Amino acid sequence: DRPEDMEPRSPVVTIMGHVDHGKTSLLDAIRNANVVSGEAGGITQHIGAYQVEKNGQKITFIDTPGHAAFTAMRARGAQATDIAILVVAADDSVMPQTIESISHAKAAGVPIIVAINKIDKPSADPQKVRTQLLQHEVFVESMGGEVLDVEVSATKGTNLDKLLEAILLQAELLDLRANANRTAEGVVIEAKLDKGRGSVATVLVQTGTLLVGDIVVAGNEWGRVRALVDDHGEHVKEALPATPVEILGLQGTPQAGDRFAVVTNEARAREITEYRQRLARDKAAARHVGQRGSLEHMMSQ
Ligand code: GTP
Ligand code: NA
Ligand code: MG
Fold it and tell me: Which family does this protein fall into (predicted)?
């Protein structure tokens, strides 16, 4: 990519945090507060990721159970996220999965924004959260650090705007860019086999523009893009960088965290996926032999 081809793109955000601290509630609250008019009752189709618009700028939220998806993607070497929102319930404060989330974000070099949630609760103690975060080297601004923190209530809808502004501020510092004028590449967020529609893969386009008709290799699978469905359930002709979209038309179901790329023709797609499927089979066979070997070893002791 030439520097002049790199245009600003939206930030991609994942929500992480301890069980029951309000990850899903926060994602739902943000989505429902920002539904496009005409989408009655905020009934958007769930595709595993969605975009909202704030001050004319888009933010992409990965809407799968943040922690698990992040871990799965990291394990497969895929980096889908620019910013991690760390949700900490103000009545429960820092807990084991809060600490785990911090290590994941730090290991991936992804900046954290702290959402101190459930501030509507009488037992909320946001200051305790900030103090406890110090012990895990998350230094929020009021503690002399640079990590942005926002007190929110997902259920009351308090300060959701402030959280979106913090995300845009953080994104500006990151100066996120992508080249839209090339064939698409990105990462699979989730994929399933749908009875009516066949293989349905939700992907995040990270670079280039994905088009209906493109030939895509995703992990060990390939197919010609029959249709693209956006986060509002609308059929679209193309998906730009940082856009989540469903791909219909793959011949098999790839895995979360698999990378995808557009290739020039079907023969090339077949060649790549046959090679990968053979590798996967060989690996599985080797693992099987390894297990049997160690079992025989154990039994001969
Ligand atoms: P897991 O996905 O199971 O880890 O949980 P989660 O982090 O997604 O939390 P979830 O959104 O399911 O919320 C857990 C509980 O906390 C639910 O009963 C929510 O209604 C409640 N809750 C979430 N946010 C708030 C909030 O801002 N205030 C109050 N009072 N309750 C909240
Ligand atoms: Na929960
Ligand atoms: Mg949840």
Answer: Belongs to the TRAFAC class translation factor GTPase superfamily. Classic translation factor GTPase family. IF-2 subfamily.
Structure tokens at 243: 């856009």
Pocket test for ligand 1, best of 20, 63, 121 (most atoms within 8 A of CB): 20
What pTM does this model have? 0.90
Mutate to test the pocket of ligand 1, among 25, 85, 125 (most ligand atoms within 8 A of CB): 25
pLDDT for residue 40 is more than 90: no
Query: Per residue in 202-223, is it b (16+ CB within 10 Å) or e — as a string?
Result: bbbbbbbbbebebbbbbbbbbb
Quote the CA–CA distance of 2 and 258 in Å, as a whole number. Answer: 26
Binding site for GTP, by residue number, is: 17-24, 63-67, 117-120
Cα torsion for 168, 89, 30, 190, to the nearest 10°? 90
pLDDT, tens only, 175-207: 999 999 999 999 999 899 999 999 999 999 999
Q: ipTM beyond 0.90?
A: yes
Cα separation, 134 vs 38, whole angstroms: 44
pLDDT score, position 99? 95
Sorted by sequence, the CB contacts under 8 Å of residue 255 that are 6+ apart come out as 76, 188, 191, 219
Query: Token pair for residue 12?
Result: 């991609």
Distance CA(200)–CA(227), nearest Å, equals: 10
- Per-residue pLDDT, 250: 98
